[in-house]
Amino acid sequence: MLEVKDVVKAFDKSLVINGVSFSIAENEVVALLGPNGAGKTTMVNLISGHLQPTSGKILLNGEDITNASPYQRIKKGIARNFQITHLFEDLSVLDNVRTCVLSNRNQLGRFFKPASGYKEATEEARAILGIFNLEQFSDQPGSELSEGDKKVLDTAMTFALKPDFLLLDEPTSGVATADKFKVMDTIIDAIGKRGTATLIIEHDMDIVSDYCQRVLVLAEGTILARGTPQEVMDDPRAQETLFGVSE
Amino acid sequence: MGLIYALNGLYFAAFLFLTSLGLSIILGVMGILNLAHGSLYAIGGFVAAYFIGMMTGSPAVLMLVTAAAAAMVLAGAVGLVMETTLLKPMYKRPLEYQLLITFGILMLIEDLIKLVFGGESRYASAPFDAMGSIEITGHTYPVYFLFVMGITALAGLFIWWLMAKTKLGIMLRAIEMDRDMAQAMGIPMRRLTVVAFVLGAALAGLGGALVVPTTPAVLGMGMDVLIMAFIVVVIGGLGSLKGTLVGSLLVGLTRSFTVAFYAELEMPLLFMIAVLILVVKPEGLFGQK
Amino acid sequence: MAQKTNRRQFLKMAGAAGLGAGAVSVMGTKALAAKKSIPKTPIKVAAISFLSGPAAGPFGIPGDNAYKMMADVYNKQGGILGRKIDLISLDEAGGAKTQVELARKLILEDKVDVILGYISSGDCKAVLPLSDELGGLMLAYDCGTHVLMEGKKSPYKTPKFQLGFRTSAHLGQDNIALALAIKKYMPDVKKIAGINQDYAWGRDSWHIFELAIKKLLPQVEIVKTLWPKIFTTDYTAHISALQGSGAQIIHSSLWGGDAVTFIKQAKAAGLFKQAKMAMSRGEPYPQELGAEFPEGQFLCCAGAHYFLYPAWDKWPLNKWFVSEFKKRYGKYPTYPSYHAYQAITAYKTAVEKASSLVGGWPTMEQTAKAMGNLSFETPSGYCVINKDHNAREDCLVGISKMTKDYPFPILDPQRLEVFPSFQVNAPAGLTTEEWIAGWKS
Amino acid sequence: MTNYLFSSRALGYLLALIVLLLLPQVLSPYHLTLVETGLSLAIMALGLNLLLRYAGVLSFGHGAYFAAGAYAVGLLNMYFPDNFSFELAMLASLGVSALVSALFGFVCVRHTRIFFSILTLALAMLMFAILEKAYHFTGGSDGIRIPLPTFFGIELTGMRRFQFLVGPYYYIVVGIFAAATLVMLAVVNSPFGKALQATRDNEVRAEMVGIRVKRFRWYAFVISGTFCGLSGGVWSFVNGHITPEISGWVFSGEIVYMVLLGGFMIFEGPIVGAMLFTYLRLYAVAWTEYWMLIVGGTLVLLVLLLPGGVTGGIAGLAARLRPGRGGGRG
Q: Any CB–CB contact under 8 A between D254 and chain C?
């Protein structure tokens, strides 16, 4: 599905990503771990097209997308959310999702029929809200949701783009600890229904070990360790990088 | 003749520099395009004309100093009132409110000037006449213009010193570069904003004071200056001292030489330059986005 | 209800438009007229001039002052046919679009008896057609554009507007008179330049002047035409360009602060050592500039409107007008004040004339009939309103000269050139351009 | 369409339309022309609000597109007086203003915030300079007179202009205004309208859900400019004369004033604003020479005390009087 090959990214003279390679298959949920400043967000930006690598290649379904613009990548099936929630706060929750659905159907450039007149898109949006348990908020503006629900809506919007490949940058940051698992359950459940390949950036090891099949540990621009959550937890080098001390 | 054309250009540039500096500072520090800036200039003009009229018979320099001081104080005072009462609540409001309130203030000041000074034009050319003319390479040239250039150079140096060498200036520039960061650093934003605004208003007042000896103070005199200052700021860059200087020189000299050789092009050329710069580099030659 | 009256007004209007010969016969029946009574209510007169903006000082306020003074004077004499004048001074602000709306309000809602107004040519062009559209009497009092009442091609139908008039002569006469004066005093002039504001007024003024001077003095070469923006405060660049051109005469229609600023800066830069000004409406500026105003310049008075002409001993009305104005406002009247006098007096005279023919208070249409072909005394001599509804006046061009009697240069009494109106105004039905083209050189 | 044809809004619209159509029976012809002016300006206010409310950018130079529409009519009359028909004039103002706004908009939409406003302002001034400078082509500052057009082949020469204005033309204006309002309502509710609001709320995110932000903003600019052009075209007949001032920044500022006066958060706000502004300004000028104190003072008070404009204020008041949820949306 997604392949990253020998990607290097330098800002001025400092190497932020130094020869990273990995691949993620269909239906797989992979976590990207690493201390602050390890280059996680840079990696996400490279994949979503907000940055161009200095060298190396990125392939989606075998097609080289290294030089494609973010817009082209969206159209090819890459979707991402942001570490900080980015909603259309004045639009209703339904419209937030429906806009994404319409975008996916290439119907955004339509001028005259009201958005609510697009029956199929509306039903699809409602279905997605159903999957993410947001139905009851449909007609409220996005700004009125709780932080946790906002986070879920943010992910729902990404999901509504029906991506082949999903990038989730800290989908539970800002969510109350008690709700984190509920949020992740919802997200992973939804993803599972479509078989999307997913890369999650996450700090919380509990979440990682519960929801991800594989883990990549990024430190100082290279991949330090990879494997199942358990394998990585047992790796002393990874332990030191992630938790500061080896147990 | 070339020298005279250049001098003419410099004089116009000097005058533009004074009037656009305030607009530029306010835009840079506060992010507000003050449409009432020209009205502050008009206040300066009317106040100076009033004082010069009162002091008939005094030496030219004394008249000018008094008139300029009075104009700066009054324009500054109006600026102070305007900033603290009307603009202060606007900083957190969207752009449309900021622009519209200055538009409203412009209309208010225009009519207040008429209420206070009456509708008749005010002539105050005594200092201009008293200074006479000198010969420069066989051409007669009014001394007053040289005087204005001198004053502007001094004012420019003072502002440069203020911005580059004093703590006040450094803090102002910090605000210009990054408002949030400046706030986080504990810079007293509120007080500085007031200072910057009053400074800009006083400079506009000075510009108005210096112009009335050459042209009468008339109702609506601020509208046109606003447009010229706007062009300078757009060319030079929002909030940049260097940009304002370069913008003024560019506009002043371009105008002088186009009038001499291709008179028809005068205004369109200036607008074209402004639009071109806006298209290519919307923050202006020396501005930051 | 309001609507009904208005419909009726339209019908009346429609009738009046085609009245023609009918009106004459109505006016002829004097006996019937004498019985009609005149209402006691005041006459609503709207006077519109610039009361804000840069044109307020030089034109709007002197004009408005004269309106106020004359309304006052006429009211003391008993008003017009015993009815007091209720003068409403309004601001000619906000551009043509506001003025159109305002004129509609004045005619339809406030139902004023007459509108005296407009300094800007753009406003005149936009508003005057409303006179016939809405059925309101309008006297344009100061705007200068020659095309206001002229058709596109000669001969054209006159009058253009049944209820619209202009009670002063247009810019054609100023510029033609200037050209004639130049021909008389400097017949050998070779190089002429022009500096006129870059809008219709400046462009039109230069256009007529250029046509006339080329016809009168074919040897003249136009060495420079400058078009500064209106309300320019710095003319140094233009002055240098004029000096560089070697012009002997500089034609200019600059007005207000622009004229003052230009002359002041030009004098300091020594322009008048090599060239003379020919100012199409230069009359007010010696008074504004005082002794600083250079001597020997050609100044046209937008008609014969000058505080010293006609001489006071020969024409007491001028003496009275000047003294009364000076007493009230501390200044000598300038041409906009004279224009205002002409507008309000034209209305008064026309009403009185119409009433003497039909008796009672004349209708608007009767007043309009009386106004076409009206001649009346003004402080400047006689004003004639022609059948094209445009006024004709004599035109005075003088040369500035310092005397002992005034603190500013006056027009040299030895060299006052007064051109009779037929010499400087196109006859009704001919456009000014085509009239000039037909001159024998 | 059916969805909101039967909603309460649709009912309100129908009522408003009926009132507008009945106005000639109760209003004096003079007030009818004012309403006509207000309605034609309302089309422009709606256009500006598409950018301000729905795209989140403030144009301070919309006079340029109004002027483009009005001058299309004026120049058509000047150069093709034999083909001066109303339908052609409307097509010309739509076409020319669409062209001008497409050109200017292409440059402007690359920027947002104050840069956008400054650029639009500068372009309007450029337009003003061209209209006034091209004296031989446009009549310069004196402007162009707009006579009566032919109307789908019908000659109106026998009619007095004012009869036309308060007679058939009033219904034409109401018709065009109603059509324009419905089109705008459709646009803001369409997928495009929602996407536009998405770009306003969050440009970064909008891009990430596949909205081409600049292109959409550009479309909005062109639609907005074309509304202004239509407004200018319709208005030019009401006023009968056009001058370059309508492209100046002062008039452009007044357009923003109208929108804010009515309240830009509510779809119908700009319409109310255009109507109120027409009356406010005219009565201030007619009442006192210090009219700028009134118009300017009203503006300052409005910004300080009633930022939601008149309709926003009424909606707020209604919400307070009616406790509990519901009903308060615009």
A: no
